[in-house]
Specification:
By secondary structure, the chain is an alpha/beta fold. It has 18 helices and 12 strands. The chain folds into 2 domains: 2-181 and 374-388, Glycogen Phosphorylase B (Rossmann fold, 3-Layer(aba) Sandwich), CATH 3.40.50.2000; 184-373, Rossmann fold. Helices cover 45% and strands 15% of the residues. The strands form 2 sheets. It has a 6-stranded parallel beta sheet. Strands 9-8-7-10-11-12 form a 6-stranded parallel beta sheet, sandwiched between helices. The relative contact order is 0.12.
Length: 389
């Protein structure tokens, strides 16, 4: 089977979107003859990106001579239109059996084509949110029009599936919920080091390290995590926060100053390579998922960090939200806290950090539980279910 993965985003970024896509392309390439069609990126830069996420190129890569421009809504629309046009030309020249995409703008583009110009391949659409509820760039009418082009939809959470049924009347037989995953081999091959964190961050010496890795977008709840530090009773706790782009880190530093957060127990780090992230996670003690009560946080998200935390055997403290309860179980592999309540989060951190038996239980259950969330298993299930349907 020949599969083409259509993806327009900035592949030079080190974000979860790019991480998720590249891991899925690699996983799909183990099952199908896979080609990735992306916007423009130089070959050396693309190699850098694969190395950053500890991936090996096992697929064909076709680069459209256009880069996504999001400086204005008009420029974004133009660059997406040009990209989609070039993709359409490619699909007319090269024969594929299946189109796989997470790009709603491409579906919207083909919805306006006459029937004889539309791609003849079956289309799998991986849906990561309800777009008209999480972005002002697309409204309900256009989202519905786009979704009508997909033959099969892969929502990443039950919250998305529920709204696809209620709002868009997508038949259940045309959907399969599949949360995100983790590249298990990357995590298995890296061993924990007792002194890695101490050498890298001397502040962590003699302390239990509570870690967060990812974006600092508002709905991610990093502000709640930071504020909880003021209410931690234990003297042997250090917070380690890794990620965020330049603007997000500036905003977070301003927030820390404004709220007088004690810096002696707080370590901030920018985005790091996958190898460095794994070393940090395997050397930490507790991991946090502090999502806010936004539609994305409550219903739509399937954070890569959840599965990465699990693969490192980290005990997890998470916001008590439906999206997180699809993966985590209170008292089995995590503790839940009241979302956006920094005092409750501090209370749970203090409690878990003092309870070594519970931490060991969570660690083992997460190490065992992560095995079913590998990218390879995810890709195989999606392709098998799609062709059975």
């Amino acid at each position: 089977m020949k599969l083409v993965y259509i993806y327009l985003n900035d592949l030079e970024k080190n974000n979860a979107n790019v991480n998720q896509t590249l891991n899925m392309v690699v996983a799909l390439s183990k099952i199908c003859d896979t080609t990735l069609i992306s916007g423009w990126i130089s070959k050396p830069k693309f190699s850098e990106r694969l190395n950053f996420f500890s991936l090996k190129k096992s697929f064909l890569h076709r680069r459209i001579p256009i880069k996504l421009n999001v400086e204005s809504f008009f420029l974004e629309k133009i660059t997406r239109l040009i990209y989609s046009f070039f993709v359409l030309l490619h699909l007319k020249i090269v024969k594929y059996d299946t189109i796989y995409t997470r790009d709603v703008s491409f579906l919207l583009f083909i919805s306006y084509l006459p029937t004889f110009l539309k791609p003849k391949q079956k289309i799998l659409f991986e849906q990561h949110t309800i777009y008209h509820k999480s972005s002002d760039k697309i409204d309900f009418k256009y989202e519905k029009r786009a979704l009508n082009q997909a033959d099969f939809i892969i929502p990443i959470s039950n919250g998305i599936k529920k709204e696809l049924t209620e709002l868009f009347h997508i038949p259940e037989k045309n959907m399969f919920v599949s949360p995100d995953g983790v590249n298990l081999m990357n995590f298995i091959n890296i061993k924990p080091s007792n002194d890695f964190l101490i050498k890298k961050y001397p502040k962590s010496k003699g302390k239990k390290v509570v870690v967060y890795v990812g974006s600092f977008k508002e709905w991610k709840g990093v502000d709640t995590f930071v504020k909880s530090l003021k209410f931690i009773k234990s003297k042997k706790i250090a917070f380690l926060i890794v990620g965020g782009n330049k603007e997000e880190r500036v905003r977070l530093n301003q927030f820390i100053l404004k709220n007088k957060i004690p810096r002696n127990k707080l370590i901030l780090e920018s985005f790091l390579s996958q190898v460095e992230i794994i070393k940090i996670l395997k050397s930490s003690d507790i991991a946090i998922i502090p999502n806010n009560k936004s539609p994305i946080g409550e219903k739509y998200t399937s954070p890569l960090k959840v599965f990465e935390y699990m693969a490192c055997g980290l005990p997890i403290i998470s916001s008590d939200l439906p999206s997180m309860k699809e993966i985590l179980n209170e008292g089995y592999n995590c503790l839940f806290f009241e979302p956006e309540n920094e005092k409750d989060l501090a209370k749970k951190i203090d409690f878990l950090s003092r309870n070594s038996i519970l931490m060991d239980k969570f660690k083992q259950n997460n190490l065992n539980g992560c095995k079913k969330y590998s990218w390879d298993i995810r890709a195989s299930r999606i392709i098998n279910l799609f062709y059975k349907s």
